[in-house]
Amino acid sequence: xxxxxxxxxxxxxxxxxxxxxxxxxxxxxxxLRVQDVPSRGRSHKIQGVxxxxxHHFLSDLERAFFLxxxxxxxxxxxxxxxxLLQVESTQAIARAIGVRYPRYKGTTLPLVMTxxxxxxxxxxxxxxxxxxxxxxxxxxxVGEDSVRTLEKLEIERRFWMxxxxxxxxxxxxxxxxxxxxxxxxxxQYARLPRPLMSSxxxxxxxxxxxxxxxxxxxxxESLRKIATRLSIPxxxxxDMFFHLIWSKMIQVDxxxxxxxxxxxxxxxxxxxPAEMTSFIEKLS
Length: 284
Description:
By secondary structure, this protein is of the alpha+beta class. The protein is 37% helix and 16% strand.
């Protein structure tokens, strides 16, 4: 699909009228899509498992942060490439701090600035709040070449401060490569076929898994024995294992090492369904 071009104010108004940058949940439409922006790195279009729509990310780092947001129990909505459509406000901020306002390439048209993520986050008291996050590699924030980037980030910071929305920069220092690798694997098992979603089956699985910790078995050996005990195929035991980690009923250190079926059963804590409420409260 061909990317969109912005050459006039009418172009911006037309895209607003067509719903870009509007909506929430599955109905949200990012202001920018992968095909609209030449990316310096790899871009990604990903079907969400938390929000049922295609998400658009312009770098590996944006994808990494997205995986963390999907895994978090606190994040209930994810809106990427979110537009700061009050262009007059962002221009006024630029004038106030004495920096040049960005324009669309090859035009004099003021740019609609975007924030990489606008999240809806559930608070411990049950309320919801908006959180804005900008995703940058650490190397882009230091040195002489970072001056222009930091100027635009300051416009963004002041805009969200005026909206009383928490804003901060996220870099690759937030997460380890192993965490992102593991989350990329686990999210494939976020949804299971209905027969594998039985709470009694999960309880039996967890009980046998707990007992397996006493033996020097690999993860695959443990899962084969569980499959035999439950009279299910090995592949279904494997799928449940990964699903129960994703759904936090099995707690594992995902940051230190990649999950490998041939490796020893990882140090884990089983959280039975009745304990899930208190565990989620602890996460919050």
